[in-house]
Amino acid sequence: MNQFxxxxxxxxxxxxxxxxxxxxxxxxxMCFCTCSAANGLMQHSAASHSHALLTCGSVRATDFGKFxxxxxxxxxxxxxxxxxxxKGLQRNPGFVLxxxxxxxxxxxxxxxxxxxxxxxxxxxxMEPSKGGFSDVGLHTGGMARNTCWQLYRESLKAVLMYHQxxxxxxxxxxxxxxxxxxxxxxxxxxxxxxxxxxASPAVLSACMHMLRSVAAKCAELSEDGHDMSACEASFAWVxxxxxxxxxxxxxxxxxxxxxxVGMPAASEFRLPSGKLPDAALAVGEVHGLDAxxxxxxxxxxxxxxxxxxxxxxxxxxxxxxxxxxxNPVSAQxxxxxxxxxxxxxxxxGFEHQAAVSTSELGALEEMVDKYRILVQRWxxxxxxxxxxxxELQSRExxxxxxxxxxxFQAARxxxxxxxxxxGVALDWHDLRHxxxxxxxxxxxxxxxxxxxxxxxxxxxxxxxxxxxGSHPTxxxxxxxxxxxxxxxxxxxxxxxxxxxxxxxxWQEVQRKQxxxxxxxxxIASAREYARDLQSRRDREWQKYLYLEYDRQLQSQYSxxxxxxxxxxxxxxxxxxxxxxxxxxxxxxxQWLFFLHMPKLFQVLSRFSFLAQQMLxxxxxxxxxxxxxxxxxxxxxxxxxxNGHQVGNYGSGIMQHKSAxxxxxxxxxxxxxxxxxxxxxxxxxxxxxxxxxxHPDSLKPQIGWMGSGCEEADQLDGVKHDGYxxxxxxxxxxxxxxxxxxxxxxxxxxxxxxxxxxAPTEPQFQTSxxxxxxxxxxxxxxxxxxxxxxxxxxxxVKPQWLSKPGFLALGSLRSFPLGQMRMLSEMLHLREVxxxxxxxxxxxxxxxxxxxxxVEDSSGPRLLWRTNxxxxxxxxxxxSDELESLADELAQTPRDQDSVLLLGELAAFLSSWxxxxxxxxxxFAAMTVSSADALEQSIVAAESTxxxxxxxxxxxxxxxxxxxxxxxxxxxxxxxxxxxxxxxVRVKHAHVFFDLGQAEDDELKALHVRCxxxxxxxxxxxxxxxxQTHTC
Length: 1031
Hints:
1031 residues; mainly alpha; three-stranded antiparallel sheet; flat; disordered N terminus
């Protein structure tokens, strides 16, 4: 129901007179709707439908204090009379108007001082209020309504309406009310924080409502472009204070429940009584049909897979997967599927594949961005941290480098005549840093290296900032532009536009020159006439005509001054023409190539810089090297070009806005000031080209601020503020450390000082054994004392490692070419605990690391793995040792945790040495046999705790068996059948068994690795399954 109220507000306005006057006016607001409710549930919601401006009169500024005092006294007297039961004026706008007029008349009559008799006399003689407002005052027995807030708010609107332009009224009102409400909020918080007694839940809730209201208004203003940082800081302070007051209030209330000091003996209190409910069954899930459905949903879920019999388009990959980190199953399936598609393209040969269309290149670019975001999120997640981090980032780098090769090959196919003679931007030797755990990835890396090696042209790398600079790229730009119909068309239109701007400027110059000449003639004539008037005045100085001549002379002087002012304006040069492109034709075409770069070259240039960026260490880990790569450019030539196509001249010219590109066209130069682009005097502009400036002095360069995928760069640690050159030559050691796995400090216990490390190695803050992980790229770069560090620093030996084992582990990666020999010796001596996580990490780093690539007659090959392809003597020795260890572990089930390392090692080497296939499967078979042997013990277990421990052990054995098939290829149906059975059993154990919290972390990590094995072999499993059904 609407309630009608009125309110008034007085405001002052200064008149512009010699004696300052204050105009006192009054707004009367009518028809307040739904202003408040009697029970206080509705407040501050009224709004005025209309208002009236009632002018009370004016008063001198010096008398305003007297007027204000008299106004309050009169109002108080009228209210007092009404309370005494006397008939008086209603307290409405008309009443306020009458009081104000009465006070003004008394002040103007200089009646002072005002005694009680004078006040009564003034009230008796007060003019009664007139119609329009009389019937809305507070009647006898009525209830006062809360209209102060609405009255204040609506009066502010009315004042703004009379004193501000319409466009500024709304924004000023919003700003004022926001800051006013913020002041009310902070004032209320300051009052409440004075004591805990005031911080009741109701009061704190009211403060939170106030905060929510004003924060919403602040957010709207911030979206409109206003700086609300001060309000945001105040809101943060209010939030902290409210939280602190809530905590303090809770402690204050809780203090009343403290037990009294000096309690009586416990016997005086009654013990609690009652019956506890029956113990619940120790089952982690609900029973019945719902539980069965939940288990079935988790166990029988489906995942989309790509076709296994062919390579698919990149757009189909985007349509198949959503690239979200929902669970470890889908995440790893997407990652492995993308990698498999690109790695297979690399192995098949980039030159031997069908040309990739421009739309497919766009899909490839989008796919790589989504892949990078997903792999970085996966690495940062709890599940992803269980995987070998350097292998994940190595596979990510190989994906980006493969995408670069695809885009480079597409450019060679599409523009063969242009690309001829130009080479790739990447150095195939840099692939030595990769750590890859399966042969598919290794073969893809070798094919990528071979492609880069085949198309490396010294000093002719395009889209590169290497030692040759950017000259080859600009040569390519000129060659492409001169052969491009579209770019030549844009260039011709730009030339016409430049001529049009120049001609318009020259017409303006000629107009001003002509006008200046006319003004000079007019000034000369006016000065001659002024001299004539002066001579006449001098002759007539004694006559009455003197004054007339003097007036004419002064008028003539004023006219001359006006003409001189016009002449100065005419002689000033018009604004110069700032052309968007250089005057030199070749430079002009180079600019246009970058500003209107075709999509193919946009993708190629981006992958070129991104692929090189993938090698860089993180900004946090290597500030010194990043300072070398940082660059500073004064001008973004793309922004310059777009900003100067429209200017003071050449209206109606067709504009050609540049296409946004990740690789920027920039310059270290800076355009001069407009005042320095042209002569200041128009008569000195003698040719049409005078006053026309071309940016030929802005030497173009290629700039790079990151991949354009900010989330992936941020997570990868290479997010840099500003430009940087990823092709800058930096020290190899930071890159080597980036691709070296970090050991976890929490699992290492040293017998000595855990903070001390080898003096010749970099300082690590993860593990005292971290120095043993690093290997230099060559013997020449390896310090001479590297092989003796383990002997000299036995004080950092962990307690779980024997002295011979420490010496063997510390020397494993001493020299790059001796790693496999040291590994063979380590397997033979058996002094190392194979199941220790640090041991597994160091050995896998040594075996998976690709190492130095050298040129061979058949292309690049891996120097560290010489003779691997034919099963060299070193692989024979290692396989013999692994086979011997398999025989020993088959007799000692308690030591079969070593299969986690040895089985995966045998599976990895089986891709180069066939006898290792049998060894890997023997490791898997022994763990499966041990898992089956535990079944009877599980059934006969007397307690649930023992049963859970045995089930956890059984699940771990099955997972270890499945991991033995991880790195190797599944080439026959027997292996596929064994893998499928293990996948089902592992899934069954993971879904149905209550494995307990103690083993949860370890089993969760193993389960994630098992899912990776499934994702890695999904194509082989689906293909062999299809062949089985066909047969």
